[in-house]
Predict the structure.
Amino acid sequence: MPKFLLLLFSALFLLGCEEDTTTVLNETPETPKPEVNNLAQPEVKYEAASVSESQKDALVKGNNAFAFNLYKFLADPSKPVFFSPYSVSSAMGMLTLGARGETENELKKVMSFPDGGAQLGSEFKELRESIVSSNEKFTMTDANSLWLNVGFKMLESYGNAVKEFFGGNAETVNFADNKAAAKKINSWIEDHTRNLIKDMIQPDALGPSTRLVLVNAVSFLAKWQVEFEEGGTRKLNCQDCQGRTAKADLMRQESYLSVADLEGVKAVELDYLGAKYSFLALMPDDPAAFPNFVKSMDSGVVEKYLKALANEDVILLFPKFDTEYSQSLTDIFKKMGLSLSFTDSADFGGISKEGLCVSDVIHKAKIKVYESGTEAAAATAVMVKCTGIAMKRPKEFRFNKPFVYMIREKATGAILFMGHYTVQGK
């Protein structure tokens, strides 16, 4: 028999998460039908597992490895790119929690998850507690939700596990009325992104065969440890990877910053207030080298430049920019080797006794970088200014060429957001 569709979305820029009042459905599974391959499996009870620092580190390393892999599929050096690998990993983590057999194994491989089941859920819970934080200096939030079709029987154990490990609640909608369903989910996304992400889900993505939508929303808001000069922003020439020029707003600050100039690449790490999160930017001196630099990106490359950083008195000219990016990840996931989840052979017996497969994975993100700080989906890092006596004229670091950037949680090293900046020259 044909399988029903399960939609998976990853939504960003949640600023100020409020506690949901929705409840997880508590319905008894239907009597098994022999024609669906996962019906004979018993319902699995999830029990929280202990998580060591090395296990949490393994999840961070796996998530970061996935981040660089996904970035290489998304990256078009001629256009700005921005996404939250942490958001995608979280949404896919909820999905993996309900996967079984080869479907689970394939998800773990493509996502670089070190574990599955309750162990994976427990690791995500620990990571969320390390990353999510809010005070007068910064706000980093992470919210999850499940949207169930009227009459769909989700296993109680799965709903409880999503609530326990990911803080996600469930709500029912009628996907046959696709306009009303899309409006309701989009309203939740807007409420959790301070209205930055609008109309993410189109009504035609939903329908009578839709059974479940999983949504993750993350957001970040923070001020720089050292703000750029008020009134110092000027329109200056910038280059794209083909050497074409265009005017862009470049902000200015002169201060002690963590910088490096290594192997033809300039690096700067800008902390956010509190020094929990940071913004790392890597710019090849030769714009023509940027496409190959993008292809080379991995954790080893980033670690090399992080180790080379040193505090130095510099004049930093850095773009002020606003990027919105939206992308269906379905075809990309298939190219990455995720095939079973999108077919009738998918096994999501941990979610429901009904046959399910994924119909689409959608991601949308937005970032604003300005003189006083950053607003985005994911992490924040604060940069601390080191005061001292300048003995020579400060070196100028002018980021007027394409560069890769990421927002990191510094203690864990987790990459919350990632992308690259470029002007589109004429």
